[in-house]
Design a protein that fits this description.
This protein is of the alpha/beta class. It is built from 13 helices and ten strands. A hairpin with a 2-residue loop joins strand 7 and strand 8. It is elongated. Bound molecules: S-adenosylmethionine (SAM).
């Protein structure tokens, strides 16, 4: 008997009569709670044959009953059982599909072949990140955008504190999930202090779980947040590359005093692409450039856009993505007026903030 979880599960199901999977799983649960000696022969034959003695696996195995079809498919493609259980905890099917993309992109492999190195580790890390993002979205579930799509400002209890100079040091984002790449709240606060007039409006087109909008509202800033894969209720599903081609409700040319474009870092972006192209860096630059170009018109004349990136550090080489993005801004008629490097204490995280100013009228 195969020891693969999905095969074992199906073999166990086959031992039970019953109209549907749920009924048969309930019957199996009752059986497996008993001593082995009291198990029906058919059940014992499946599990003895597979040499499975581990109670955890036994209890876990039946959780396949609640696996989404894409997670079952991933299991049949060789995703380790523990990782599949984790992926199954992601509620949003679109996010799950993104997390599983590296597995789905693999060419067909013979049934028993192991996954290429790193694939299941990467999926597990991204699943953890997605679960954390969904939880934090749940935590901010009470935060809702208004009828106009904007998140209203709280009555500002405090003014945002500045950080001095061009190198900002901030407390690390403890436990920040790798794939989610949230901006540390202290950096958001310093950005607001530097770039937004009191009562100003912010548009964040790559908002993820909405860190920037939720920090901004505490400092009296109203905001509109969008993301291609939103992870908070007040974040609208919108593609930054085409935002102004058909602006969503509440968004119009010149509606923002500050536009934030914080795209995925190259490392995260690349994971969602099928590999095999030599020109990945160019594709990345084009994709981020398209996000900036597609949303830039929201900025009021004379106000600011901030593009948050990180140098690409890959295979022993460094590519200064930030300088390419600065060229892109200049080509779009935006004057680059600031460049800040924000570094976490201890140096584990760095963000490069390019600050542009939209042309003034006249
Ligand atoms: C670095 S994360 C942003 C993190 C967020 N600023 C925060 O502080 O929590 C990058 C985000 O860009 C989003 N994204 C990628 N491509 C996009 C696109 N074309 N349009 C809008 N959002 C996009 C991803 O879904 C991801 O949530």
């Amino acid at each position: 008997m195969s020891r693969k979880p999905l095969d074992l599960y199906q073999a166990l199901l086959a031992t039970q009569p019953g109209p549907d999977e749920a009924t048969r799983v309930r019957a199996l649960r009752r059986i497996l709670r008993r001593d082995r000696g009291a198990w029906p022969d058919a059940v014992r034959a499946v599990l003895d044959g597979a040499a499975v003695g581990d109670g955890y696996l036994l209890r876990g195995l039946l959780s396949i009953a609640i696996f989404a079809p894409d997670v079952r498919d991933a299991l049949s493609r060789g995703l380790p059982f523990a990782v599949a259980r984790r992926v199954n905890r992601i509620d949003d099917p679109t996010v799950r599909a993104t997390v599983l993309a590296p597995l789905v992109a693999l060419p067909e492999r013979p049934g028993a072949a192991l996954l290429p190195r790193g694939v299941s580790r990467r999926i597990e890390a991204d699943a953890l990140a997605a679960i954390t993002a969904e939880r934090s979205a749940g935590a901010s579930a009470h935060i809702a955008a208004g009828a106009d799509g904007w998140l209203a400002a709280d009555d500002p209890a405090a003014s945002p504190r500045r950080l001095p100079g061009h190198v900002w040091v901030f407390p690390p984002n403890r436990g920040a999930p790798r794939g989610a790449e949230p901006l540390a709240p202290r950096v958001v606060e310093a950005l607001l202090a530097r770039l937004l007039p009191r009562g100003g409006a912010l548009v964040d087109v790559t908002a993820g779980a909405g860190t920037i909008g939720s920090v901004a509202r505490r400092f009296g800033v109203r905001s509109w947040s969008g993301d291609i894969a939103p992870a908070a209720t007040f974040v609208h599903r919108a593609d930054a590359r085409t935002l102004m081609a058909a602006p969503p409700r509440g968004v119009a040319a010149g509606c923002a005093d500050l536009l934030v474009v914080h795209p995925p870092t190259y490392a995260v972006w690349r994971r969602t692409r099928s590999s095999g192209h030599d020109d990945q860096l160019d594709l990345y630059r084009d994709d981020v450039g398209a996000m900036i170009a597609g949303s830039l018109a929201v900025v009021r004349r004379g106000r600011h856009v901030v593009v948050i990136s990180r140098p690409v550090r890959s295979a022993g080489e460094v590519w200064l993505a930030t300088s390419h993005l600065a060229e892109g801004l200049a080509e779009a008629g935006v004057r680059v007026v600031g460049y800040v490097v924000a570094v976490a204490t201890g140096g584990a995280e760095d963000w490069h903030l390019l600050i542009g100013q939209a042309a003034r009228s006249g």
